[in-house]
Amino acid sequence: MANRITLEVTRYNPAHDEKPRPDTYEVPLRKEWVVLDALNYIKDHLDGSLSFRWSCRMGVCGSCGMMVNGVPKLTCATFLSDYAPGPVRVEPMSHFPVLRDLVVDTSDFLVKLAKSKPWIIRKVEKPLNEEYFQTPEQMDAYKQFSMCINCMLCYAACPVYGLDPLFSGPAAIALAQRYNLDSRDQGASDRLDILSHHEGIWGCTFVGECTQVCPKNVDPAAAIQQYKLTATMEWLKALVLPRGAE
Amino acid sequence: MNNPTEYLPRSYHTRVSTYWWLARWPYVKFILREASSVFVAWIVVVTLLQIRALTRGPADYAELQNWLRSPLLLTLNAVSLAFVIFHAVTWFNLAPKAMVIRLRGKRLSSLAIAAPNYVAWVVISAAIAWILLRG
């Protein structure tokens, strides 16, 4: 294995750059190094002005998402050696406005996330001394979707979101589904209005790349297709029983 | 609601290229899958033309058969068949994504949901082939 590898890193300073440009750095290629280690090496030894987000460096916080050779990746879980002999292209996540270098503006996602009401909604609260029991099967129904770490790699992979920024996007819908499927939740009808419209689930054309790039195997594409089925059944129910099924 | 980026510094917005789907193979595959609907529509048109010719009598049907034997139509229909098969396979593979079926508390595997679709496809195709080829 060659002991050095070249990184092409996107640089952008909003104060004096018209648009982002690639800059080249040569870093040591070590077997145990991930792309994030290489970026930290650049920041510590080659150019201290390089900006990027990271925190836990163990695939939990979801901060270090970037495009590595054009594919959305958590850079803390992407080994440099897999890209040898290089060069490795590191760019900010696609479809998000770039604030500086590899840092993107995630406000749009946060607004959409809140709109999908990702919390347990109760129409009737139990007294404080009573618990909300759940069987392992009931937990199994939503557990996969609850693994989302809000890293937004699915948004960077989704061409629908790139072309139509109004689209709610994979993670927000998967998280809505996570609460819809929770036996303790009673807010499914509140979320239906928000998600069952053109910019919600029906905007999805099932490219499926959100699921492919998800580092936590959440499978947002499945969440959206399942929600389409639910929304269709609700629509049918309303058509057949206009005065309500209950 | 206020614009969430109102007080943030200037940012750079990248426009998605018209040719975004050429950037990666999974995107190309997606576009091919979407384009397959055109070929599915073409097969429907051919079937309708065949039904119309059948109702008009043997002479019309023979004429249509002749037209369908031209190299251009043969090529078009061969390509269409490939796309229709691709369309069917991607559709069947979608079924396990959209359907969650639980039996005795356990979720049925993707294979268990997709397999009946494939079996039905083979059985119906075999039945049609038998009807067409037996005499």
Short synopsis of the structure:
Chain A has 246 residues and is an alpha+beta fold. Chain A has helices at 35-46, 107-115, 136-143, 153-157, 159-163, 170-180, 188-195, 209-213, 220-240; strands at 4-11, 21-28, 65-68, 71-74, 88-91, 98-100, 103-104. Chain A is built from 9 helices and 7 strands, in the order ββαβββββαααααααα.
How would you sum up this structure, described in words?
The complex is a heterodimer of chains A (246) and B (135). With 246 residues, chain A is of the alpha+beta class. Chain A has nine helices and seven strands; from the N terminus they run E-E-H-E-E-E-E-E-H-H-H-H-H-H-H-H. Chain A folds into two domains: 4-104, Beta-grasp domain (Ubiquitin-like (UB roll)); 107-240, Alpha-helical ferredoxin (Fumarate Reductase Iron-sulfur Protein, Chain B, domain 2). Chain A is 34% helix and 13% strand. In chain A, the strands form two sheets. In chain A, strands 2-1-5-3-4 form a five-stranded mixed sheet. Chain A has a two-stranded antiparallel ribbon with strand order 6-7. Chain B is mostly helical and 135 residues long. Chain B has a domain at 1-81: 3 helical TM bundles of succinate and fumarate reductases (Up-down Bundle), CATH 1.20.1300. Chain B has four helices and two strands, in the order αααββα. Chain B has a two-stranded antiparallel sheet. In chain B, helix 1 (25-56) runs antiparallel to helix 2. The chains are: A alpha+beta (246), B mainly alpha (135). The A-B interface holds A 12, 14, 19-20, 70-71, 94-95, 97-100, 105, 107-108, 110-111, 137, 140-141, 159, 162-163, 205-209, 212, 219, 221-222, 225-226, 228-229 and B 1, 4-5, 8-14, 16, 20-21, 23-24, 26-27, 30, 34, 94, 97-100, 102, 105, 107.
